[in-house]
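User: Quick sanity check before I run a bigger batch. Here is a single chain. Can you write out its predicted 3D structure?
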Amino acid sequence: MLLTTWQYERLDGLQQFSVVMFNGLRVDLILSGMLLAPLVLLVPLLAHKFSWLLWQRIITIWAVLTVAIIVFMELASPTFIIEYGQRPNRLFIEYLKYPREVMSMLWEGYRLTLVGGVLITAAVAYGIFRLSRSWLVQKQPGWAYWKTLLCWPLMVLVTVVMIRSSFDHRPANPSSFAITPDPLVNDLMLNSAWSVYFAIYNLKHEEESNEVYGELSHEQILAEVHEEKPELIVDAMADPPIVNPQHATKQRKKPLNLVLILEESLSADYVKTLGGSGATPQLDKLSEQGWWFENLYATGTRSVRGIEAVISGFLPTRARSVVKLSLSQQNFFTIASLLENNGYLTEFIYGGQAHFDNMASFFMGNGFQHIIDREHFDKPVFEGSWGVSDEDVFNKLHDRLQRHHATGQPFFSFAFTSSNHSPYEFPDGRIEINGEKQTPENAVRYADYALGQFFEKAQRSEYWQDTIFLVVADHHNRVEGENLVPIEKYHIPGLILGADIEPRRLSTIASQIDLPTTVLSMMGISSSHPMIGRDLTLAEEQQKAGRAFMQYDDYFAKMTGEEVVILRPEATPLLGRYDHTSQQLHMRGSAESEPYETALAHALLPGWLYRCRCYHVPSGNVKFTQSEAMNLSVMPTPVLHERQEEIPGTGIVQ
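Assistant: Done. Predicted structure follows.
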């Protein structure tokens, strides 16, 4: 009730308010049934006079613990919604794996909320215990055991009905309450404890996570992907099943070095040349010196999602990023492994602990030879919750690039910044502070300052003429909005400069997965690899409307020009049109009447490639020709899961 009242402006009047309240009651009953189920099952065994004292204590402990968890999760929800635009979910669970970083962030940025939440939770738990004391003094059951046994089947039935909350063959789940185009409104119907429970439950099934969107055979997937990118060599029986025989458009006697700078949470909202607030004067100036992407979109909402896209060219899924999954820790394609095979020195530079999000394991198992993290920075300029400042990272990067250049060995350096991460800590005296210091806008200004300082030194260095630089954001700092998929929050800056790169502005829609293929071509490296990203150095690619892929919680979106297909779990896909000027997504309804197989194929492809462990560079020569591989018949319409009904008043079929 309180959360819905707080977000009332997101609702479409009192009618939608009543819908949220009704469904919220359903979810509360589901959670209550789940918490009561263990006790109900134990009733025949313990609810009699011989074990009455034990039964009393089990119920009391269970009540105190479960109520405390529910209260704590609801108290944590407002802050989580402010930060991420959703109730606590999978991200909440993933952060628990890194207590040092997370506790430091909470203490610095959310101290009052944290302390207040713990105190209120403790007070409620104590109150529940006090209330139970009057019952604990009861020495015998209140009624006969035979009556308990007679009532027990009814108790079980009521509990099952509460948990299922549906008489369909499939019980209710979070997607059952996705009944409006606004994801936060849908989240308001849930409760946070149930949302987190489902996040934990889904971790067991994440390898098949995208299969909830529909079904296609492997041949169908390849046919759809090949139709959009005909130069691919595909064969469902080969390993790998997709090979991109990419020929560099820039022929060089000696390929260039590569420096990839991944900027934490640097969204288009702050970049003046992209219509933002103008908090990045250094980046705006640099945008005039290289290839500037005016319509570049992130694939997800987490740093590891950006990493898998720009390092591996890998499409997003509902599962965790491949950076964290077990089957991708070795023999998984990265541009580092490709460049290592071409004689490059490869390294990762990060100001925090490289074990965070499993980055160190993934990188060391897939082509990175060296990792420089917090322990390698002596006397840093500044250290915050997430590690040393961006200045320290760039100082280390500049020093290492000078040394690499002196050896004559080609190099690939990947630097990842973190100053623009909540709680937004950075050194004093660098920028003019607007209002309170630790805000996203001021952190962006500092990140931009540090970036500008680095490029001033880099452009005067000897390595500049032999090196290409890719600067790109990992994701937006807060991905939330009133659209079913907040596409405007996936818009990020991207820039390629250095060496002999001539200034150019690219207006075609581009995805993060297009960046590694493009920079390889600009470096002068021809190779066969499994990436399906576009090579934007090709003139014909620059003339296309382009496409981008976005994973938002349980939704997968493919945007081609203005047309958007949104895939939803166990429901019919939706069609929409995205107005790039107004940044509004206008839904058109169900995708039943128009083709959506290409979007579905791209959603299913990464899960298949991950499970078969066949996302890697082909060994030896490819033994089939493109024409042979594409001798495929016309495929039937994909199979969709059930539940196709119109949501009243929305024009959306689910």
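The chain has a mean pLDDT of 87.

User: Great, the batch can go ahead then.
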